[in-house]
Amino acid sequence: MNCLRSTTFRQLLLISAVLLSASLPCSAQKLKGIDQEPAALPAHDQASVQRMLHMGAAKVRPMRAAVGTSVHSEPQALPHWAGSFKVSSGANRTATQQTYSYTMVGTDPSTGGASATTTVRTILVPLRLQFADGTVFDASTDTVAPLNTSAINNVLASPQFTPSPVFAGSVNLGNTQYADAVQRGNFWNKVSGRPDYHVLLKPEVYPTQTIVVPAALGAVYTDYPSGIAYGVVYGGLDYGNPNNSNNSPINTFISSFVAQVNDPSALLMFVSHNIVDCDGGCLGYHDVLPLGGGTEQTYVYASYNDQALFTFPLYGGGEFEGYPDMNTLSHEVSEWVNDPIGDNIVPAWSYIGVFVSTSCSYTSYLEVGDPLEMRFCRSGY
């Protein structure tokens, strides 16, 4: 079975219903001695990179509410809908009630006939990174599995863009794109009888963009035991950052490119190959940048990684399946659909199967992929 053409959900990402478990002291909120917020690492090397990936630091960026922006806002041009839910806490969960507002891409699934298919223009930008030693990682030309063609061609042929049959157990969510199927599963009680409800991506492949990485801002490493080369781009207040710079070359490029495109109704999708971008995101992230006049541009960045990369079980023991091919991109696109502006706040939550309560939770953002960070999956989630 071609792993890019058929997808079965092993988990439905139903983060809207947050489980409130018993409160325990922070000393009980650790996994094998690893704190939720790891200490800074002294330098980038194979061990430090894999430690970041294993601890879930691979896909974390400061969100808008954490850096002094509005508690909640709505995109002006991006097709979206807004809603809210209430959570009770205190004695018998009735003493205090708090309302949480959110914005998601598409139309409101609860409005019946008023909701419909939403199609979002998606500008797919292949990245070519050239390092100081002459090594080049090019998402538009490097031959990668499983289709033995470029990373970009693999992305286009994957369920992220090519409709495929998607199931949640025995439930057929439709022959559709992956992120759309996730969203249909999230609201299955509203859309199960409406095959016309979709949030679809319409790709346009932009010319390959070259990013020159100076020696002070990046280096090439060799993975063990696969022997696969990968690039590490430094930047941001991140683990092992040798020069304490504010932005990585990738982040700097994205900021400039967003201003040139200037289409707040579109999703920009930047794809690299075998790159760890240590600007707070590492393998991938979704974010938003201002365009002026009150408009904002949403975007996703992800690295398409070789299937054997980062699979050595350095931490945790057992087989570590890494983050192969579409894993990171599918993760970030689903998070973008559910929180395009990055300021949907929900009750505190933690990794599934890792922490036993929310008293020392990981975050309060609606990040639908992150609760599964410690549950390594094949072919994305």
Distinctive features:
381 residues; alpha/beta; seven-stranded mixed sheet; three-stranded mixed sheet; 6 helices; disordered N terminus; disordered C terminus
Counted up, domains total: 1
Number of strands: 19
Q: Please write the string of helix (H) and strand (E) elements.
A: EHEEEEEEHEEHHEEEEHEEEEHEE
User: Considering DSSP H and I runs of 4 or more, what fraction of the residues is helical?
Assistant: 10-25%
Give me the number of helical elements.
Answer: 6
As residue ranges, the low-confidence spans are 1-44, 54-71, 237-244, 354-361, 376-381
Written overview of the protein:
This protein is an alpha/beta fold. The chain has one domain. The protein is 14% helix and 30% strand. It has six helices and 19 strands. The strands form six sheets. Strands 4, 5, 10, 11, 14, 16 and 17 form a seven-stranded mixed β-sheet that branches. Strands 1-8-9 form a three-stranded mixed β-sheet, covered by helices on one side. Strand 8 and strand 9 form a beta hairpin. It is globular, with a radius of gyration of 20 Å. The chain starts with 6 loop residues before the first strand and ends in a 16-residue tail after the last strand.
What's the helix and strand layout?
Layout (H helix, E strand, L loop, with lengths): L6 E3 L36 H9 L25 E10 L6 E10 L12 E14 L4 E3 L4 E2 L4 E2 H7 L6 E5 L2 E6 L1 H9 L1 H4 L7 E7 L3 E5 L4 E5 L6 E6 L14 H13 L5 E7 L1 E4 L5 E9 L2 E10 L22 H12 L6 E5 L13 E3 L16
Parallel strand pairs: 1-8, 4-10, 4-11, 4-14, 13-15, 14-17
Antiparallel strand pairs: 2-3, 4-5, 6-7, 8-9, 12-13, 16-17, 18-19
